Amino acid sequence: MLRPVRPGVGLQIAMAALPVGLALWAASLAGGALAAAAKAPPAAASLVDVIRLNGVIAPATGRYVVRGIRDAERDRAEALLIEMDTPGGLLKSMDDITRAMINTDVPTVVYVYPSGSRAASAGVFITYAATIAAMAPTTHLGAAHPVTAGGGSPGGEDKTLMTKITNDSVAGIRGLAVRRGRNAAWAEKAVRESVSITETEALALHVIDLVAVSPRDLLAKIDGREVQTPSGKRRLHTRSARTVEIPMDLTEQFLALLSDPNVGFILMTMAIYGIIFELSNPGSVFPGVIGGLALILALASFAVLEVNVAGLLLIGFSLILFIADIKVPSHGILTAGGIVSFVIGSLLLTERQAPFLRISLALIFGMAALTGGFFAFAVGAGLRAQRRKVQTGREGLVGAIGVARTQLSPEGTVFVQGEIWSADSLDGVIAAGARVRVARVEGLRLQVNREEASAS
């Protein structure tokens, strides 16, 4: 028997089922979203390229940084991290680096790292050119007064030239400070007065943007920062970024080696030895080839360092004196003059450069001592050879002992030094088989005495 349903009961049932349906629909949507997320490829992590700028700022490092910026642009990197520890370097190379840094769309992050590092001289300009500047604990920055063109007297044209270079450097670093919103007044003091500061002072004076204990800590701290680039504002996403180091290539490593004044000096010394060996032993070829290559590389190194021409000429003059001492018996006087010229020329060669671009004094005196010892041995051997009895030729026969092959009355033949000679006796008749001594040589005939007579 069917019971009639009360009015409104169906509506009540439908209303009761509605939450369950909504829950099932929401669960279905969530499952679909999870499945789609599982099938979708993971989002690519952001990339930060890293270059390490250690040592003197020279053409090799300039080329390295410019290439690093170009690679970061190609990789669409989030930023280019430049870990730096430098005593400074050449103005031209520094200008190449700062120009590339302020004209790239890739944010550049200069980080004076690790602890104990410094950013001196040219390093200050590079720090100011960075989009973000940071330092590690126990690092310092400053002393940016230009010195590469110095070395002259404090007055006259040298002073005028230094004033021009200093004013130009001040204008350049103030421009960088204004562009990056950093302390321009301190930057000018760093150039004019060579002041230096620690990382805490740099942060307080707004010379840098932050202090970080490690590269990963630095990337976490700059994450989310908005920076200005030539193409507009950009927000950094670096907290979990993947870092890729860009090393120096072979060309840059070779140029960096040539930029070392000590390497250039060693190459110059090798060139001197090679040329001397070739001239003293014509036709040996190998010493001449090595000496020529070393000379070309040394001149390339000195061209990079902008050496003192007077020092280079003195070293060349020492080479002339060394060669002359081989050809002319001066009993070592020319060698002594060559060593003095070599030492003075070596000291003058880089005297206009900053201390870290000068040739080591220990290397200069060590090479001078080695050269002096070599020529003392060579000249001594020559003098000993001059005093030694002649062993070959006509002069070598005088005093030689032989045997009469025939009777000498007074003419005959003798056997001396493995050969048969026509001979004349100076002691009357000498029997065949008797021992004889050569008294002198006349053309192809020997004048001989009895050995007993010679001994008596």
From TrEMBL:
Keyword set, alphabetical order: Membrane, Transmembrane, Transmembrane helix
One GO CC term, this protein: membrane
Segments crossing the lipid bilayer: 254-277, 309-326, 333-350, 356-379
Residue ranges occupied by any NfeD integral membrane domain in the UniProt entry: 262-379
tRNA-binding as UniProt keyword: no
Transmembrane recorded as keyword: yes
Coiled coil: none
Bilayer disposition of the protein: Multi-pass membrane protein
Subcellular location: Membrane
Domain NfeD1b N-terminal: 48-205
Domain NfeD-like C-terminal as annotated: residue spans: 395-448
Superkingdom field: Bacteria
Principal location listed in the UniProt entry: membrane
One Pfam family from the record: NfeD_membrane
Record's protein name: Nodulation protein NfeD
Biological source species: Candidatus Segetimicrobium genomatis
Higher taxonomy: Bacteria, Bacillati, Candidatus Sysuimicrobiota, Candidatus Sysuimicrobiia, Candidatus Sysuimicrobiales
